[in-house]
Amino acid sequence: MGKLTASGLAFAVAVVAVMGSSPAAAGRSESKPYGSPALGQGDTASVCVNEPPLDSCVAFTLLTGETTVHASVIDATGNPVYATIGQDLNSDGLVDISMNFCGQTSVPFTPVEPPIGVYEVVVYPHLAPGLGDGQLNPCLGVATSGVVTIHIN
Description:
Elements: H1 6-20, H2 23-26, E1 28-34, E2 39-41, E3 45-47, E4 58-63, E5 69-75, E6 82-87, E7 97-102, E8 118-125, E9 146-152
Antiparallel strand pairs: 1-9, 2-3, 4-8, 5-9, 6-7, 6-8
């Protein structure tokens, strides 16, 4: 009988781990820049200015089976900024479900998944501070320009 070396054991464990994981469980991450903040304030209303170089809101495409999204905003100032992640359910240009956060989401955003196909979530880095995550944690940071990163499962 052959002897199992340490490198052989490591390889076998890696193969089993890969075979046992699904792409949806592993998730994926994506980052996109924003050139300016969304106009307005997240607790009332905000408007995207999506003309270069401003590009104030960042849209991410999700696929069927991707059901949770964590988001973070890294601003050029280095401060956590007030932001909203949301989804337009009826193509009217307005988000119908949303969640506010400061710097990064503390809980996942759960978009409504269509029966088939792709759909989008949009992140709005805000021009003004806001009430925060709904837990009485105000967010004083204001967006200038930076990068939005999402992790999708």
